[in-house]
Design goal:
This protein has eleven helices and eight strands. By secondary structure, it is of the alpha/beta class. The chain is globular, with a radius of gyration of 18 Å.
Length: about 290
């Protein structure tokens, strides 16, 4: 039992681009074990995964989410090419592409239309562009909220909701632990995406470099927040894949990420992960020699 009493359990999902596939494998293992949450809090791609899970929080729903990920290609999420970049520069825009492809994907695949329609309470974290404050969206159109939470600065345009300019939740809180605690959760199960700790080279494109850097900052923020809030809640962080050599823009190895994450999380559960608190070593700065698994 939690040192804080039975309490409410929040499933907290981090951002991380294409590494969001890791969370699908984690969810598969957790559902097999019988894990249940009282609420779901997510940012960026974690908000998208969290929204689907909150709408369909069972084995069949997680398998549907896996099928969606297995069908994804980079162009479905990041349709960035030379022409779009040149057009953006010539027009003086502050972003590379519109989020139309992602919006169409969400329209086709999401099982509900409003945040309050999900089976589990869902809270989506975005960032107020002008102030940097977290903005937690708990009601309203689901697609608008997800597009705001995933509006990566300089890649996608910001979204206007209730008169506020919102961007990616990762800017304020990639892993929204503070929001989950503020919502009354006393036990948090955090699903990070991890980071490319074994990437062999610097990301080649401007967009991939920006997202890789944001992801690194987000993982260090996660470590800080776990340490800061661990006296207010029991925080259990699922150990991410490590070593990891996949770019946050690469959707070509999704099947391998899901499979590895499922097996890795099954082992984490067997070894008592759901009773341990603190930060996994794989989330702290480190390096690898040799090649990483896929």
């Amino acid at each position: 039992m939690s040192k804080h009493g039975p309490g409410r359990t929040a499933l907290v999902l981090a951002g991380g681009g294409s590494l969001g596939a890791v969370q699908v494998g984690m969810l598969q293992a957790l559902i097999e074990y019988g894990f249940e949450a009282d609420l779901v809090v997510g940012a960026s791609v974690g908000a998208i995964n969290g929204a689907y899970f909150a709408a369909r929080p069972h084995r069949h729903g997680v398998e549907e989410l896996a099928d969606i990920w297995l069908s994804l290609r980079s162009k479905d999420v990041f349709p960035i090419h030379t022409f779009s970049a040149i057009k953006s520069l010539l027009l003086g825009q502050n972003h590379l592409v519109q989020a139309d492809a992602l919006a169409h994907l969400l329209e086709r695949r999401l099982p509900v239309q409003h945040i309050e329609d999900t089976a589990l309470p869902l809270h989506i974290v975005a960032t107020e562009l002008l102030t940097g404050k977290e903005n937690v969206l708990s009601t309203g159109p689901l697609i608008d909220a997800l597009l705001a939470s995933a509006a990566i600065p300089m890649i996608y345009p910001h979204r206007e909701i209730a008169g506020k300019a919102l961007v990616d939740g990762s800017v304020a809180s990639n892993t929204p632990i503070a929001s989950a605690v503020a919502l009354g959760a006393e036990r948090l199960l955090v699903l990070p995406t991890g980071f490319g700790c074994a990437c062999p080279a610097v990301p080649a494109s401007m967009a991939s470099l920006a997202l890789h850097t944001l992801n690194l900052l987000s993982m260090w923020q996660l470590v800080r927040d776990v340490e800061h809030y661990q006296q207010q809640a029991d925080i259990h962080v699922v150990a991410p894949l490590c070593p990891q050599a996949v770019s946050v823009f690469d959707f070509s190895v999704t099947a391998g990420l899901i499979r590895r994450a499922r097996l890795h999380t099954q082992r984490w559960i067997r070894e008592g992960g759901l009773t341990r608190t603190g930060v996994p070593d794989s989330l702290r700065p480190h390096h690898h020699g040799g090649e990483a698994g896929m």
